[in-house]
Amino acid sequence: MREPSSRGPLSSQSNRDDDNSKLFYSKRNKDNETRTEKEKRQDYLYEIEEAKRKRNIKEYEEEQRKKKKEEEEEQRKKKKEQRKPRFVRGLQDEVFEHIDKKNGESASGEKLVCWSFENFHQKRKFCAATREKFFEYYSILNENERHHYEIIRDNEPCHLYFDLEFDRDANADVDGVKSTDALLDLIKEELYEKHNVTIALNKHVVELESIITESNVASIEQAKEISKKSKKFSRHVIVRLPGAAFKSNIHVGKFVKDFWNSVCERRASDERCEKLFIRKEQSETERQYSIIDLGVYTRNRAFRLFLSSKAKKKEVLQCTRRFWTHREERDIFYRSLVTNIDKEQSKNLIEYHNVTVPLSQMSNGCANIFSGHGYRRDSLSQNPTKQKELPCAELVEFVLNDFDSWSDAKMNKAAVRSWVAFPDHDTLILNLVGNRYCENIKRQHKSNNVMLILDFQRGVYHQKCHDPDCKGMNPQLRELPVNMLQRAIINGRALPFEREEPKCESDDEEFWQSAASAAERLW
Ligand SMILES: [Zn+2]
Fold this sequence. Notes:
About 40% of the residues lie in helices and about 20% in strands.
């Protein structure tokens, strides 16, 4: 037996191997018994070293992977954070309140303004942001995520703006582009004659067109081709007066409605005026409606933004580049905002004196008001012609029945004494006889009649009354059946149930009071 420590021939042999490569030696699986203790220990130490080395590599790699993942996550978060701006959101009135408070606190700096967004369910949300911050956010959204609107607030200065639209099928003989040109020509004259303002189309007019720009559309030409075929001609025209603006969109409405009246008068003598008339339905032979949507000059109107589409729709507002234009989307965006007024313009605001009561313009307008007298349910079958005169007879029938049932009418059933419809405001007012139940006093009035107000924007109706003591009453809103709403048409105009308007005229005490008494005056 050899001493384990002594160096025998075998040992020296193994040592030589050892010198060449420890790894080589151990991997050969040399019989353990032929190896010395020292060799074994060396193998052992080596294996530990090797394991350590491997572990270190693994750890390092793991670390790198983790680091990369974290970085990616960080990037993603950053991007998301950018996309999800910390705008104050809420109901329209809450957002208004926040904006007024903040803008009141700091006299300098960019002001907060109100924007709205239409989600997939076509419900409106509101937020407050400066124009700069909003665009930062808006510009990184995908095309199909942009359903945004500028809120043209009550009493806020704004530019002259038009929403032009018609159904192409019903107006095969109307060339929308030529009509727009005729309109601008006439508006140029009107502005000069009335306000001594001279506009240049290539400087002061921005024209946006609602067109399909799907990603699967190969070229702009193709998109234009599709847009030509799309059912609706729809454009926004924004006219920025040099060194002037309108005091609010109600005043813009006054200017436009006066203009439209003069167009109606000159129709026979001026061929440009003739070009502004359209049909609403294919069945109509005469073109008797305005290409200008006269209903967009209401309080707190939402106006669709450049690069936005309506929810669930593909047509996006793009700049036609026919008049003022710019390479940068940012510049077009700013330029197309209706309430983006510069200092110079804000010093010179156009206003009219008789515009506070919206009705005064409406009854002067060309077919903005539509009214009638008398409607009894029992005469329905006997007098079909009368029935025809009342718009939405089906809905009226429904609300009368509904009113009788919740007011628990026993003797006198409700009937319509007079009614007045405001297609531009999506409101129908019924002055009742028979049932005089008032929700405010929870019983019948002795002499005053009550009224029902049908609000087609929200698809609800409520009761109001003529008694001065009931002024400011807070009536319950009751739903109108959706299927009936979809069939509701007033004066040839399908009513936009939950379409565009975030705030309803019928919330305005003054509005319904004057509207209801107008119905009485007219008959
Ligand atoms: Zn009352």
